[in-house]
Amino acid sequence: MVLILIIIFLIVDDLKKGQKARLDLAREKQLTESLMESRHKLLLSVSHDIKTPLSSMMGYMEMWQGEKIPESMKKQLLSAQNSGKHILSMLINLLEFSRLERNAGELHNSRFNLTELVDEIIQMFRPLTEGKELDIEFENRVESPFYVETDHTVLRQILINVISNAVKYTVKGRIDVRLSYENSLIFSISDTGIGMHESDIREIFKPFSRVKNPLKAEGNGFGMYVTHGLIHSLKGEINVQSKKDEGTCVTITLPLHPAEKIPDESKNSHQDSNNVYRKVLVFEDDITLGKLINEFLSKQGFKVKICNNTRDVDGFINHISLFDIVFTDMQMPDITGNEILLKIRRINSCIPVWLMSAYDDYNTEKAVSEGFSGFITKPIRMGKFIDVLSGETQVITNHPPSLGEKFPQLASLFGDDTETIKK
User: Is residue 354 within 8 Å of residue 293, measured between CB atoms?
Assistant: First the structure.
């Protein structure tokens, strides 16, 4: 009997210890997840705060390139612009690294011209190769234009990371970027750089792992880790072949297929001179960026008004009929872009309202689903404004009816907001 009691006691004690261990493990997991979430939110906040001044810096450089200045200065501006793009690329890598750790990757698919994207990325790196005895070439083995439907930001970052490594570790020779399609999309990036031993190839996909190299090239050690994760998110594969002192070839295979060509929006009704948006209202609390937008668009012949503080918002909205189009920041002091949109829609249901944001959880699809006409990400490419205002980019003007329009009985219960605002 005593033996049975001892056995029961030991079993109960073991169960209690097991339960305590499980509870401790659950608490540790919850604490880890909470810390990772807090860190990710901090990264999002820092990223947002960097992107807004980066918009001003890169925007002014873009504007000055259009001025009559010496060719040598234009090259310097282009180099500075590329440095800004490099900062942006590092920010994206940091955010993607954080998302991969949290297993929180989310794709935002859109249709775009792939050959145009690859060419743009190669042009971005060309000033860096010109400073070396190095050529970079794009060998296109698909028809051009070639449209695909996938996450534009993710694919762009994959290519930037791989090509960046090729440029970084190749002193002279050439870099070849090949694009082909054989039931899947195939990217091949080969270089004549320093290469690596076969035993080092597995190491480059580990976070913060860097292979020793004689060039002592700068880097943070998680670019290829992020690249591998991003390729996996697209259900693709990456293969690396390399020989020490001879070069490296990276092959990326993605299960993507040709998509239908986007209709030529430059020939739609927006191209009509009567539909070009000449009078522009911009809600942007960053004074430097607001001045840049005003100066840039005014030089192009547009009439621009900038609202950079919350107290003037209602005044501008009450005179919304004076404008053809509106651009609003996602977050101004004490008011959001969504609240500005709601105020505008109470008065005018047709005027295009575009959202501008540096937040990484926003894209065109999400902005349009919330009632905006389109989305511009920060850092802002100044030419994007011209694309929108000239009708080169499609503007959505058919907005869903407001609650007041769908349920007129609500207006009778709570009063007519439109009349109140007009007064």
Answer: no
